[in-house]
Here is the input.
Amino acid sequence: MKCLYYPGCSQKASSISYEKSFLTIARALGIEIIELDDWNCCGTTVTISVNEILSHTLSARNLAIAEPYNLPVVAPCPSCYISLNKVNKLYKEKSFLVDKINASLNEGGLKYNGKVRVYNILDFLVNFVGADKISQKVVKPLKNIKIAPYYGCQIVNPYATGDDNDNPRNLEKIIEVLGAVPVDFPYRTMCCGGSLMFTRKPQAEQMSNIILKSISHAGADMVATPCGLCQINLNLAEKTSNQYSGSRISLPVLNIAQLISAAFGLEKSDAIENFRKTEKSLTEVM
Here is the structure.
């Protein structure tokens, strides 16, 4: 199995641990990951808010470079994934914007025909790799660990494919094959505040804390998310939880690749090891 990997900016910077874990589990699953050559920023967030054509062209450039490989692309960052898939939708619908995008690509000697299949991390793991194959690689089952499946808002965006956007289940499927118990809670697809953490920090902190409090009330031992930015924001929310929730909420937040890597026995997770030690101590007492 082969797949092109589009890291985007975050996988090389703030979410470098996500990239490390993703590449680790891909090797364990026997998937040849080829990083897209000469990739560029997908044009998300800031760019699309000031120049829509430039944003779409940046994503289209990546897709144009990928198209000759005739391989699917996996984009672990949900925001990058949405940017790429949005361009695919424009091409499929023959939007009037496509002519402008093509004109820009042509200036760089590139052409895109709208043929690249793009996967988000959960769609990739469940529908490309397969839950059964993931299950076969588990050597340290996450037995009795209650995990909150926090999707965030991007991976269930209307431009996303591969799951039910109104009631997604891919994250729960992965948690279950790892031997853990998915915990339901009302805000699993609510926005964590995203990049507002840099521009409207109090509002973003409040949004993240609403989610964290909901997860805590649901009785989860930890959180798993497919989004590196969500992981950062929920981890930061722990520091302000006393201010917004009236008490300190301390819950480990792992990205989905870290969680799988721990269950595969490929990467140490202090959060999981501490849970196992606690569970063993309680069992001995009882």
